[in-house]
Amino acid sequence: MSTPAPEDRKDSMVESAAGESEATAAAKRGPSVATRERRQGSINPSGETPYLVVEDLAVQFPTADGLVSAVNGLSYSVPLGRTLAIVGESGSGKSVSSMAVMGLHDRKRTRITGSIRLGGDEIVGLPENELMKIRGDAVAMVFQDPQSSLHPLYTVGNQITEAYRVHHKVSKDVAKKRALEMLDLVGIPNPQRRFSQYPHEFSGGMRQRAMIAMGLVNDPKLVIADEPTTALDVTVQAQILDLLNNLQKEFGSAIVLITHDLGVVAEMADDVLVMYAGRCVEYGTAEDVLANPRMPYTWGLLESIPTVSAANERLRPIKGLPPSLLNLPDGCSFNPRCPYKDRVKGERCTTELPELLPVDGAGAHTARCHLHDKATIYAAEVAPRLS
Amino acid sequence: MSDNNTVRKVDSVPSGSTAKDSGAPLLQVRDLKMYFPIKEAAGLGRTKKVVQAVDGVSFELKAGASMGLVGESGCGKSTTGRMITRLLTPTAGEILFKGTNIAHLKERELRPFRRQLQIVFQDPYSSLNPRQTVSNIISTPLRVHNLVKKGKELDRVQELLERVGLNPEHHNRYPNEFSGGQRQRIGIARALAVEPEVIIADEPVSALDVSIQAQVMNLLEDLRRDLGIAFVFIAHDLGVVRHFCDQVAVMYLGKIVEQGSREQIYGAPQHPYTQALLSAAPDLGTIRGVPPKERIRLVGDVPSPIDPPSGCRFRTRCWKAEDICATQEPLLEPKAHSSAGHAAACHFAEPKVDLTAATA
């Protein structure tokens, strides 16, 4: 596995209006080629208590129209050094659940129950000042839109040093040194100059790098990346994903990656959790969930993406729309859109909420579905349409 | 009176069948350019700079065909679409619709062509007027072009709603009562109302969720098949383009760098930029046991279109760049190893076949 060394990345980074020397430098290089080594094994291979443990988490918002259950009975865990991808469509609760991990919800307007433990310490119900100590230090967040999550009136360097000094009692000079180090690490060329520039002077990819530098400045154990590459172009997206992978190797942090893009999941994630209407509907290692999915919603997602390598066949979309969180259907939330519900005897799909149970009898791969012969249906009907 | 002549000629736009019969392209774009001036106070005097958003784009679209314009943000793909629909007036170049150059027609002469060339926008939230009912939104173009008799408008609106898969009873609702996918269908119904021959679809599905995206893609495909509408499909998602378009043009910094059929572009891309784009697209293949494809990682960002690099515009990020690339601009032309209709603008173009073929 050849990954470009950070120094190679640095000097080859071409700035917006590039000069002659850079062009000739580029000529000397081959294309940088990188692939990721996927960590094998079960969801928690070491058997130790994972760094992040979420148990039976529920997030509810009382509104004028009624109680919105944005997240319901969600449980997952992420050990250090592993990446969990949370996948789902808008409104499925993927962002809401991870904002709960950051303690970012307005307490007055949110009801959070269940348990979130970071390195063994419970954070649900922690007072704000305690949360402040954790936020940005042990846990960092990288947001989707680097344009709106960097402050436009402060220099990038200023924002990174502040993030560091909030959690470390150090002089400005020490903090600056640390910030420059971070800018360099995330592949921003000429950190000295970039340090005193404002966010608008950065391109989209550079801003996302700066955001990552700010997130990682305190060496967090857990990084929550909420659609970190959705706003970026394909070639820049690839750079940022590589960067996150390399930094994880270096720092050994746990990553929760929130995304709707299954391609990104396939390239980044060790484990995958699929959410639908506020609930986890399938959870397992990336191989389990993407190569042997056992839930009709996951099948539907996989069948509805046109891929770069696929032939031109008709797409098979999931019919209908996601349900309103104010008024979830009885039984399985997915039942109004599920093409397989007729195969379940009786009215179970429309009356009884399926539990999240191990598929194929045992193991850590779980799915929420009443279907009996999921493996057979997948192998006989779904898999042929996917290849 | 030459003016009168043009007007008459314009009024009698030939019907679609003639173009189809002759096999001549319905739409031809030749050396299209769009420079946006920007004013900057610099030193003593004011210097005028231009953003070269589109710099010499040419392609053809046959009746009923679909042409994909792919590229990253700022490559000029949307600007090209807007010029074709004349929402922007090109700085230079020709847009031939059935042989008539519409690039610089005046508004009044342009009107009959507006009917033929419609656009569907990316954002279904900002492209529908929130204060108008769906019925009003869809019937406005009908009224403007005098296409239905008074009193028959509602029938036509309901027919269109049904065509795009919406409940015709919902005609007097407002856009905010619909979801993103449904709004996009309303935008499509509005474009269909005037029975266009070409629809410019500018990122029509990129704002939608995956499961909804597939629904809208299938709708567009039905329209193309059933109504014979030709599409210029603008997108950054290579998977979507592969699915929908028979012809593909890859754009970089205002220029087409490679052009060809779907099979040529995806099966044997020749331009380094196309190769990099394809290899950067995250793919599900590997997880299903397909051997990992080669990854080409570009460095840096797209240069500014205000002051693009000399010679080949891609050279600053290209691993093949040599001295000639800085001095001599490569032309978009067929290469020695090209099959018919495949052209690339690169001094060192060579096909690479293993980027997407792995799962084929």
Q: What spatial form of chain A do the alpha-carbon principal axes imply?
A: globular
Helix content range of chain A? 25-40%
Q: How many strand segments of chain A?
A: 12
CATH homology superfamily name of the largest domain in chain B: P-loop containing nucleotide triphosphate hydrolases
Rounded to an integer in angstroms, the radius of gyration calculated over CA atoms of chain B is 22 Å
Order of helices and strands of chain A: HHEEEHEEHEHHHHHEHEHEEHHHEEH
Please state the average pLDDT score of chain B: 87
| Structural domains of chain B: how many | 2
Mean pLDDT of chain A: 84
Biased composition (Basic and acidic residues) (chain B): 1-11
Protein name (chain B): Dipeptide ABC transporter ATP-binding protein
Domain ABC transporter (chain B): 27-278
GO molecular function (chain B): ATP binding; ATP hydrolysis activity
Overview of this protein structure:
The complex is a heterodimer of chains A (387) and B (360). By secondary structure, chain A is an alpha/beta fold. Chain A has a domain at 287-306 and 315-386. Chain A contains 15 helices and 12 strands. In chain A, the strands form 2 sheets. In chain A, strands 6-7-8-3-9-10-12-11 form an 8-stranded mixed β-sheet, sandwiched between helices. In chain A, strand 7 (222-226), helix 10 (234-251) and strand 8 form a beta-alpha-beta unit. The two termini of chain A are 26 Å apart. Chain B is an alpha/beta fold and 360 residues long. Chain B has 2 domains: 1-40 and 48-245, 3-Layer(aba) Sandwich (Rossmann fold); 259-360, no CATH class. In chain B, strands 6-7-8-3-9-10-11 form a 7-stranded mixed β-sheet, sandwiched between helices. Chain B has a 4-stranded antiparallel β-sheet with strand order 2-1-4-5. In chain B, helix 5 packs across helix 6. The chains are: A alpha/beta (387), B alpha/beta (360). The interface between A and B is large, with 71 and 67 residues. Chain B: InterPro entries: AAA+_ATPase, ABC_transp_ATP-bind, ABC_transporter-like_ATP-bd, ABC_transporter-like_CS, Oligopep_ABC_C, P-loop_NTPase. Chain B: Residues 27-278 form the ABC transporter domain.
